[in-house]
């Protein structure tokens, strides 16, 4: 990847200094490629934040090891964080409360076994959309009368690769198919849907062969997962406090970790 030229920085960045080290605009421009964002300004802020954090950790490790900052390696920083971050172990009560408050995080998603026939038409081709909609309605009428013909009709008419499988998509969970179908599948009953379903690809004749609703997992099955999530949260919070303490102790001019972005970005 190439660095971002200085002239593409959104504005002239204020001088940033961490301790006695100045972070140059050229360094921010070079770091921006690793922080994709919705705008150049957001990428520049994320890049500046990352460089400030790197300097704070490097200077703290150098102070502890009594060595020049430019000789500090990543393993020394990792060892320092391992020593100094106070991360409490979540107890059973905290884990149970978290599990009860977030059942959606600890459940099997719904599943749908689906067949479909895709009649392709681009979103902006009004004539093709009308033609394929009418054809989809005719296919639905045929399938209502002779449901055993679904495989044949899918192989003849569908423009999806699944046509070779008789239109079968297998078991789907949310996120595995096009967004428009994802939303519809949650509400569709079993069997042949009596209306064509639209998507960006055209019209879908859809048959739901089976469905399994979302199922919340029992506490005993997810206790370690819950404990791991709470440890991760506690680690992020401990690191945030540690970085803010270093910022205050070492001194940062021209930038503020506390004001720049949410906690989750501080940790990256």
Q: From N to C, what is the helix and strand string?
A: EEHHHHEEHHEHEEEEHEHH
Helix content: 40-55%
Please give the domain count: 2
Ends: how far apart?
A: 19 Å
pLDDT averaged over residues? 88
Helical stretch count? 10
Q: Tell me the major beta sheet.
A: 5 strands, antiparallel
Task: Give the percentage of residues in beta strands.
Answer: 15-25%
Protein name: peptidylprolyl isomerase
EC number: 5.2.1.8
GO molecular function, one term: peptidyl-prolyl cis-trans isomerase activity
Catalytic activity: [protein]-peptidylproline (omega=180) = [protein]-peptidylproline (omega=0)
Task: Outline the fold blueprint.
Elements: E1 16-18, E2 21-23, H1 25-31, H2 40-65, H3 74-84, H4 92-101, E3 107-108, E4 111-120, H5 126-145, H6 150-157, E5 168-172, H7 179-185, E6 191-192, E7 197-199, E8 202-212, E9 215-216, H8 219-250, E10 252-253, H9 257-260, H10 263-266
């Amino acid at each position: 990847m190439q660095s971002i030229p200085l002239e593409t920085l959104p504005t002239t960045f204020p001088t940033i200094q961490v301790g006695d080290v100045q972070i140059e605009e050229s360094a921010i421009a070079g770091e921006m490629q690793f922080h994709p964002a919705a705008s150049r300004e957001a990428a520049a802020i994320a890049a500046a934040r990352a460089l400030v954090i790197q300097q704070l950790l490097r200077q703290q490790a150098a102070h502890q090891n009594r060595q020049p900052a430019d000789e500090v390696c990543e393993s020394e920083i990792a060892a320092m964080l391992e020593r100094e971050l106070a991360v409490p172990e979540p107890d059973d009560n905290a884990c149970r409360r978290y599990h009860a408050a977030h059942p959606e995080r600890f459940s099997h998603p719904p599943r749908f076994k689906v067949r479909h026939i895709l009649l392709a038409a681009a979103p902006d081709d009004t004539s093709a959309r009308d033609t394929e909609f009418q054809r989809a309605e005719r296919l639905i009428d045929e399938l209502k009368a002779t449901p055993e013909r679904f495989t044949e009709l899918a192989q003849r008419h569908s423009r999806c690769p699944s046509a070779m499988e008789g239109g079968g998509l297998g078991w789907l969970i949310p996120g595995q198919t096009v967004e428009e179908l994802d939303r519809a599948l949650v509400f569709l009953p079993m069997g042949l849907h009596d209306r064509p379903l639209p998507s960006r690809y055209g019209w879908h004749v859809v048959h739901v062969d089976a469905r399994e609703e979302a199922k919340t997992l029992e506490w005993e099955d997810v206790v370690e997962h819950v404990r791991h999530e709470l440890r991760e949260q506690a680690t992020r919070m401990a690191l945030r406090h540690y970085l803010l303490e270093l910022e205050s102790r070492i001194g940062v001019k021209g930038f503020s970790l506390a004001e720049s972005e949410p906690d989750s970005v501080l940790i990256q």
